[in-house]
Amino acid sequence: MRPFIEKVKTFVNEKLPFLKTGQEFILKYWNRYQIYRQNRPPLSRIEKLWKYSGIVLLSIFIYFFSVDINFLWLFGSSPSLDKLQNPQTELASDLYTSDGVLLGKYYRENRSPVAYNKLSPNIIKALIATEDVRFYKHSGIDIKGMFAAAGDLLKGDGRGASTITQQLAKNLYKTRQKNSEGLLHYIPLIKTLVIKTKEWITAIKLERVYTKEEIITLYLNTVTFGSNTFGIKTAARAFFNTSPDSLNMQQSALLVGMLKAPTQYSPILNPKSALRRRNVVFSQLARYKIITKKAQDSLNILPIKLDYHVQSHLDGANNYFSSAINKFLDDWSEETGNDIYTGGYKIYTTIDSRMQKYAEQAVAEQVKFQQILFDSQWGKQYPWVDKNGVEPVGFIEGIAHRTDYYKSLKQKYKNHPDSAEILLNTPHKIKVFSWSGDKEVMMSVMDSIRYHKRFLHAGMMTMDPYTGQIKAWVGGIDYNYFKYDHVKQAKRQPGSTFKPFVYTAAIDNGWTPCDEIEDKMVTFRYEENGEKKEWTPKNADWVYSGRMMTLRHAIGRSINTVTAQLTDKIGAQKVADYAHKMGITSEIKPVPSVGLGSSDASVFEMVGAYSTFLNQGIWTEPQFISRIEDRYGNVVEQFSPKQRRVINPETAWLMLYMLKGGIEEPLGTSQNLWSFEVFGNGNEFAAKTGTSTNQADAWFMGITKDLVSGVWFGGDDPRVHFRTMLGEGSRTALPIYGTFMEKIYKDESLGITKGPLPKAPAYVKKKYYCPTLWRPSKIDSAASDSGGIVIPNMNEIKDSIGVGG
User: Of 7, 44, 256, 518, which is most buried, counting CB atoms within 10 Å of its CB?
Assistant: First the structure.
């Protein structure tokens, strides 16, 4: 070993002489230091005090610095200066209509910030007297207060020593959460010391960044008051139905008292404890002479007065289009990395609150009226029986067995399954829906299902066809009782409202509105899934006229035989293809009956598809979110709808002209619109009614120069149906639309006016004006001004209203 060391020394001396020089330098001054230590006089007591004080202070400085920079990852992260200057509290995101009406909130913590000048002096005084009386005298850490708290603890009167600024640091920056943990976190006493140190450091930094007023404001905006209330604004609204600047001394003391333990001192959960704690706050106010002793005595005897409003945790708006909006926003959050539940965004929907109100009123008025007719028609008989009066086997039982209530019973009584069935049929007190308001009755679960299944429902959507913006969305009659959305979620047979896809495919492939097909009985033979089938379409009035009919007249009167023959001529698959490219995303079976609406579709899909006719052949995706702003009002994202050309402009205009036939052709199925105050000023409608074969689904689609609307009407289940033709679209769905448009035209603030649909553009080359007994063979000037249409005497039209479609 020694020879090796000698070799190293020789190598260092020869090859690395600077190391030897450094070694000699260190040894020289080390020897001098040793001589100084041996010869220096002993330190006095004061010098020793200064020495050790300096060592302690230096150690404390090094410790605080190490914690702040998270030295060797021992202590966990602390908030940066940028975070201190730009605190990001969890804020609820607000959902608005296009005209600025609040629809709902998205939040994990329902918090709305308030400015200092909107805080009542009472809440500030109560907070400082109770939590940090020396708030205006310290710089984040109150050393004197800590010693005072220690003294109180020895006397048995324990109280916290954290300043308001320290509490703010803990609330605002989550200094006790997982992402703030370091390697020393797992040592119990060290862990507590590190956490308190971080709060001290953060508090000192906060005092340097913010004024005292700003700290008070931040604190009151971040604390929780229990009962799902976060921040003073939400708490004032929840407990007293007031604003933070209107809080009186009793209210302020109660809220400040709750801060120590929101559940323990909740006036809702523990009113007696809340009262005692409130009076402690009064004693603190008197102790520091903010109020007099006499005032304290007077306040102590006052009872707690609340005007409590439940703060429910909403994951979205409490309405029928919530599911569509929620999914859209959740997907947006995932794609962008933004969190709508904490980001304080302002989300603007395309819904117009006024149109929404009118749509809801129209649905309620008409469905309520139709329910009376429906109930009188069925009497005590169930409206889901078949034509022989037989109830489907297991219909109500199947619905009951899908409920959460039954599933919980089945789990609870898994060894006694009969018990679950007995309880399903045991009456108990329950609230049920009625058109005159909620009713409390004694009813079993089974009877409740039977009761609610008798109610009729409706779905309605209105949109701007040019922008795709949905203006009104009504998914049912009462969201509290019937959550199922009949606009986008429900898919039902569209009946004759599907026929325009047949005529669109025909017009787009060489046919014209004036081409004719005979109204006659025809039987179609086809094969489906390897099985040979026959189908003979029947008209709504069960009559075959044997007359040749123009396509416009046939669609206006909704003649099934003509539509079926046209479907056969152009091909069922082509009809399905056109429906798909025009916006119908649901499955469509290419069978001979496809043109009569035998495949299901939603109101959402149908309205989007019909907008193509008014928008010159361009399909526009229905849109319900227009923009999202951040908490500072900056636009985060502006949304534009998807658009694509699906048919040529000539076909689109010709279909618009064809759909006007429902009102203008003799016995047109949409002529019930004349019963409503929606005409005048040259106003025109392109419209189509629809009814499923068993009178279970009634539809109406309406187009004006500004809006496209769709209405579905029927029972919650397809087996619920009308007994007669009273359930047709012209009698049930159309009146909802007519009522809605009456209200729209009366509200001038909407800017929706009456007027004609677009005239024939120059690119329309196909023949579309077809002379009939009702129309002259020569177009006069009046006809020219209305796109080649002469409208007959109104009384004659009213007399011709039929029962088709």
Answer: 256
